[in-house]
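Researcher: I'd like a structural prediction for the single chain below. Treat it as a standalone chain; there are no partners to consider.
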Amino acid sequence: MPTVLVVDDTETNRYILEKILKTEGFQVISAENGAQTLARAAEDRPDLILLDINMPDMDGFEVCRRLKKIDRPR
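Model: Treating it as a single chain, here is the predicted structure.
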């Protein structure tokens, strides 16, 4: 089952996306900020990340730059 990491600092947005994706048969994990995203991505190795751009502390662009540096051999 493909895993999707949903990242958004708004709880309602995460909830809606999680419900839709689970209904479609995806395994869903979530994060509410950049630091959590980096940790979850390294630990759980999702197949897809839906990433909010406007987040406090670390925006989605910075998260994306850091994700690209993670060594992810499969």
